[in-house]
Amino acid sequence: MGFDARQFRDALGCFPTGIAVMTAGSEETSHIGITVNSFTSVSLDPPLVLWCIDRRSRRYPHFAQAPGFTVSILASGHKAVSSRLAGQGEHSLDGIALVPTELGPPGLADSLAIFECARESVQDAGDHAILIGRVLRFARHDGAGAPLVYFRGHYGALAQGEPPEGVSGRRTTDSD
Q: pLDDT band at 171, cuts 50/70/90?
């Protein structure tokens, strides 16, 4: 029995993910963006995050060689921006509402959170690379709305609200 890559991808799609846009570049090279759903935290001390990019992407060299990148966690109102930066070809940030950062690559306006990261390392992993960034600065925007999510090949949004009664929202571990 062979391994069916399409069925594997469909099975992975059963895991709902948030959507982020990564930006990189400088004023000399212009800023570019890419939509990802592979963003996650790695470590609190030091503060590290990671995301993955296809090494065959034309955007790969820009991100792999950049000294850093900015992560914008998308709100439900960012669907059009996410779709635009997810596709082949279009990667310019022209016409997208942006906010400046100290690092250089801008964040997307009205994002739920923005992380400015220095490149920590780039690791090969099959047909993708794992980019690990050290978070230098971050901002959280509580009034930005619900997150944009991706599930089974479609965009969606989570309802905002308070945790159910009796749930504090605090994660516990065995060491607590």
A: very low
Q: Which two tokens stand for residue 6?
A: 């399409």
Confidence band, pLDDT 50/70/90 cuts, at residue 155: confident
Residue where the block lists tokens 């439900």 = 76
Nearby residues of 25 by Cβ (< 8 Å), 6 or more positions away: 31, 32, 62, 66, 104, 105
What mean pLDDT comes out for the span 132-137? 98
Record the pTM.
Answer: 0.85
Alpha-carbon distance 63 to 90, whole Å?
15
- State how far the Cα of 35 lies from the Cα of 82, in Å rounded to an integer: 6
